[in-house]
Amino acid sequence: MDQTIICRCEEVSLQDIQNTAITYNCSAREVKLRTRAGMGYCGGRTCRPAVDAVLEAVTGEKAGHDIPMKVQPPVRPVSLAILGGKMR
Amino acid sequence: MTNKNHTEVVIIGGGIVGCAIAYYVAKSGIDCVLIEKDDIASGTSSRCDGNVTIVDKDPGFDSLMSLKSQELTVGLSDKLELGFEYRALGSLLVCENDTELEAAKNWVDIQNAAGLDFKLLDRADLRAESPYFADDIPGGLECRTDSLINPYLFCYSLIDKAKQYGLKVYTQSEVTSITKKDDFTIETTNGQFTAKKVVNAAGVWAPFIGNMLDLDIPIIPRKGHIIVGARQKPVMMRNVMEFGYLMNKFGRDRIVDPVTEKHGVALVLEPTESQNFLLGSSREFVGYNGKIDINVVQTMAKRAMRFYPKMNDFTMIRTYTGFRPWTADHLPIVSEVDSIPGFFIAAGHEGDGISLAAVTGKLIEELIRGVSDTIVPTNPLRFDRFTKVPVS
To answer: What SS3 string covers B340-388?
Structure first.
């Protein structure tokens, strides 16, 4: 169970998250930054509920809209050309 | 409560500057407490990039201070137990045209004369750095002593060691008032503290702390955007800035289109340890509004494609903003305040907080201990350089 991958993009396991929270006795945000859980390609769109639930379980912090995982634009991956207004 | 929370030095601010100060002060054996309104590295220090650079510093005091800080940072990469993704790879400045390349030649000569390790690069050198550069980029330069770090991991690493030396950290503790009689009394949302000395390391929020003691600290937020590119094919290993970045930073004339000028956009590309890459940059005075401005992001993406047209199909996953603490002369304030003995300011590093954190921490520690032979001269960093005649 503790080998279960919570964040697939950054390959962060339940154990990684639990150990980080215990070792550093830190906030959910800090656990996220230290493990990179939810910081990968999907931007948390796949793993967000799982990461939030695990972080709440290990740190006791309820997931708000800002912490631990704020949704940052452009929300889903887009090409540099689209961001630069060169396509469509 | 008051007695329990009495200490020699209170450091306000848990960004990279406050963390570095906490490390050096605690290491020297002084009793100290760090107070942070939110969380460690929750402001500018997690909304920036991770350059420890000289390549973009004005020759003279500016580059000397950076060099000293680089030396300290290299040493810290050995001394601190928690890694902070220190990568000593050197960094590049690239030129858009021959005019800039001429200026770059001049920049290399000046820096070499100052004893720094700079080298001019031609078209072939750049091709060897990355296959993604545009064919018409004529050249650039490298500074071989520059390095990259992960800023928030650096904060965690400094705090971890400082705690071993006795530092106490209070997060979620916003300072609400400061008064001084014999000692300073600092009221926070998480209790009261008293201290003999206080260091204001609140970065872009330092003026609010200053106001509590009727001090006018001339630091203004200069907003920046960053785009995060997903790991895919390696673009290159080293950090890149365009030569125009210098022009933007120092407010010098630059030949670009009006929108690029308005948004203060200049290319920065930083490969990260996670194999993503960061694309910057923008510079704007728009107060403390941290919202992503998609128009600025578009200008930055266009600018990136000017230098890396073959990256047009690379995927971008995230954008974020941060506030650089700007001062009028582009140097930080690292100084005791004469009118309030025991009150120190260490803020106003604009975009150089990561580069200059270590030297700032060391200097504040020396100032607190009353060392006369400091690591860098203190005059250019004095607070009173912004005030004409002191009011008695």
So the answer is: CCCEEEEECCHHHHHHHHHHHHHHHHHHHHCCCCCCCCCHHHCHHHCCC
